[in-house]
Amino acid sequence: MTKPRATDTSASIGRIAVFAALIVVLGTVIVPLPSGVPITAQTLGVMLAGLVLGPRLAPLAVVLVLALAAVGLPVLAGGRGGLGVFVGPSAGYLVGWIAGVVVIGLLMRTGRFTWWRSATAAFVGGVLVVYAFGIPVQALVTGVPLGPTALSSLAFLPGDLIKVVAATLVAVALRRAYPRAFADGRRVRTVSAV
């Protein structure tokens, strides 16, 4: 087994930092909801991290953001931070980000890069997996039964579908323009349209 070169490690650290920063910046786009879980653009950053960084580096970018939030920095939607966010209604969604980027990254590794694979991975990992963690925790924290909580979470779906489309478009454009940005290290000639 070969040792990773210092330049590879530096590039990985840089990618992690860039995507952590992207997730934080996208948290400034916020639509508050009465449920206590706001609509934000941060999940777009999570989707992009999974698509570009893959299953090994993307979770590190998300964990970095969550660690910064845990120490009190206002890096989450609406300038939130501190340990309180990990016991609030959105706590499950935050944990779901980690699982979601792993799933996105794994789905992207199952074959060659295509727009439809990107869209599927972003939807499955960035929406379904995140909801699977977020909805039960939101129900538990708010004391609202799981069914009504899941039903109320449908308010997020149109925005999340827009984020899936945006993440797919950005990932496809980035793959064409700068394939070296992707952590999978595979050589790319063109992005398949099929």
TrEMBL record:
GO terms for cellular component: plasma membrane. The chain crosses the membrane at residues 12-31, 60-77, 83-107, 119-141, 161-178. Keywords: Cell membrane, Membrane, Transmembrane, Transmembrane helix, Transport. One of its GO terms (molecular function) is biotin transmembrane transporter activity. Its main location: membrane. It is a multi-pass membrane protein. It comes from the Bacteria. The keyword Cell wall biogenesis/degradation does not apply. Pfam families: BioY (PF02632). It is found in: Cell membrane. This is Biotin transporter.
